[in-house]
Write a structure and sequence with these properties.
It is a single chain. This protein is α/β, with parallel strands linked by helices. It has one domain: Rossmann fold. The chain is built from six helices and five strands; from the N terminus they run βαβαβαβαβαα. The protein has a five-stranded parallel sheet with strand order 2-1-3-4-5, sandwiched between helices. Helix 3 links the parallel strand 3 and strand 4. Helix 2 packs parallel to helix 3. It starts with 8 loop residues before the first strand and ends with a helix.
Length: 147
């Protein structure tokens, strides 16, 4: 796939564990995709970012993301609730969301897909096959025009 190297993808990573943030960043850096990554460490901070509230009030510093990578096991407000709120908001609902989580619960998977996520990846599989899984997912998103 030919990637548009001119446009920078704005990616919001919603993940509370620093080791996982580093691993995901490393994988994305190796992908060759031009990107800017913002990180929120809990569900409330993620919604503040998306609604440009509080510490995230500046739309220039904290723009609307092109893609969201979301963990479900978040402090303060869990990832499924964050997902539901994003998908219920007119100006946010079209942002593609990829769930990257440790939860293998069938109800979590079903709930996520009911909210129209682009993908649901298990962290255990991602860690073992990190490059192919994440880059393949980015390629899939980009093929739908998200750059």
């Amino acid at each position: 796939m030919v990637r548009n190297k001119k446009k920078e993808t704005k990616l919001l990573l919603i993940e509370d564990l620093e080791d996982h943030v580093r691993l995901i960043r490393h994988t994305l850096e190796r992908s060759g995709l031009k990107k800017k990554i913002w990180v929120c460490r809990d569900g409330e901070a993620a919604l503040d970012y998306l609604y440009n509230r509080g510490d995230y009030a500046s739309k220039e510093k904290y723009p609307k993301p092109d893609i969201i990578v979301l963990d479900l096991g978040l402090p303060k407000l869990d990832g499924l609730e964050v997902l539901k709120r994003i998908k219920s908001e007119e100006r946010l609902k079209d942002i593609p969301i990829v769930v990257l989580t440790a939860s293998e619960k069938s109800e979590d998977i079903t709930s996520a897909y009911k909210e129209d996520v682009e993908g649901y990846l298990l962290k255990s599989a991602f860690i073992v096959e990190k490059t192919g899984k994440m880059e393949g997912l980015l390629d899939a998103l980009l093929s739908f025009g998200y750059q």
